[in-house]
Amino acid sequence: MSNLEELIEQLRDALRHLDDPLYLENLALAREIARTAGSSDLSSGQLLRRTLRLAITSMEPTSLGDGSLVDASTYQVLYRYAIMRKAMTAIAHELGMSVRSGYYALSRATEALARVIQGLLEPPERGHAGDLAGASLPSVRVRDELLRLASGHPQDVELRRLLEETIQDLSPLARQSDVEIRLLAPPRDLRVATKRVLLRQAIMNLLSWLVANAASRQVTVRLADNGVTIAISLEAVLSQEGTGEGPGAPHAIAKRIGETLGLSWHETQERGHCRVSIEIPRSSRKHVLVVDDNEGVIALIRRYLHSLPYAVWGAHDGQEALALLPEANPDVIILDVMLPTQDGWEVLGMLRDACQATGHDVPVVVCSIINDPRLARALGANAFLHKPVTRAGLLQALATVTSSS
């Protein structure tokens, strides 16, 4: 962006259309963000939407202390408007202000958001200590998160959730075309190991093509477990005009992405009825739940396992770990026994009881600075990991418990 005023105008336009990634593709700001991120895995519209959500969340005043860019009420106006997608009349009523005051607060918040994005687009020089001198903390947070999202390693993807989010993103286009996108999927988690952003973009492109060319008023998305693979089927009756397209059209792009991911792609068209089936291998990743009050330890374990077939979840105490169990569905639990609010051995018992109540006997690796593996095993742990944690020690402990589980 050439200046701050132009950036603010672009942001106002983007915030009005945050639910429409296809519209966002055409904004100059989307191209600027894509150029800065340097990731071929992300479409410019999807990346802009993700960036704005991250930037707004990073501005939350309580997380920034004295460095806050906006006050609490101004931030709440922006959050409700952009993230929760509420009308200004509803926002003003909830926050006890006039609609005029609400729009004034939104204008101030948008200007603050522009400074965060400006810091992202124009990264400052690094100081002698390697810190980003002069950068706002939200800009640094957003930049770090975008780098993480752009990594090329496969992720553990829950397909039902991904499809629900994609269909929601396409709802403005579907309403405009008077088409219903119907999802038929089993209620349980169906997970695959793939590049989430690429798969999401392929499905979005394919769905947008089906919606735009549907002769009927419905596009159906089916999700089925075939044992070794999980199949996504997309079906619609197409108009005659929808049968031909060039190499740059959404359908062709979706197919190329599928080929890039190495997915099995089957397509049939008979009497106007089009069906595309994509088969994706089931996830072979094991889920690791790390319970440690030190965020640095959780981050270290994530880094050690980043390129390996493990998905890492983090909890800072026993209660948070219990709450995460249904979602994380861990294959292994790594537990620090020196927790600040609850004895780690009590947490070990609680987690074992909770896992066994669901019919799963999840192995536990006790992680402690006190080097006493015999005590750990006597109290019910399956393996012991001594702090400070090394990558070799972590992999050995995981290999021990996963090979016997």
Q: Helicity, in percent?
A: 40-55%
- Following the backbone from N to C, one meets helices and strands in this order, namely HHHHHHHHHEHHEEHEEHEEEHEHEHEHEH
Radius of gyration: 24 Å
- The helix-and-strand class reads alpha/beta
Per the principal axes of the C-alpha atoms, what is the gross shape? globular
Strands, total number: 12
Strand arrangement within the widest β-sheet reads: 2-4-5-7-6
Alpha-carbon distance between the two ends: 55 Å
Mean pLDDT, all residues:
81
Tally of domains = 3
Q: What composes the largest sheet?
A: 5 strands, mixed
Sequence stretches where pLDDT stays below 50 over 5 or more residues:
124-135
Q: What is the helix tally?
A: 18
Q: List the quaternary state of the chains.
A: single chain
- Percentage beta strand: 15-25%
Question: Care to describe what's here?
Answer:
The protein has 405 residues and is α/β, with parallel strands linked by helices. The chain folds into three domains: 146 residues, no CATH class; 127 residues, Heat Shock Protein 90 (2-Layer Sandwich), CATH 3.30.565; 119 residues, Response regulator (Rossmann fold, 3-Layer(aba) Sandwich), CATH 3.40.50.2300. The chain is built from 18 helices and twelve strands. The strands form three sheets. The protein has a five-stranded mixed beta sheet. The protein has a five-stranded parallel beta sheet with strand order 9-8-10-11-12, sandwiched between helices. It starts with a helix and ends with a helix. About 3% of the residues have low confidence.
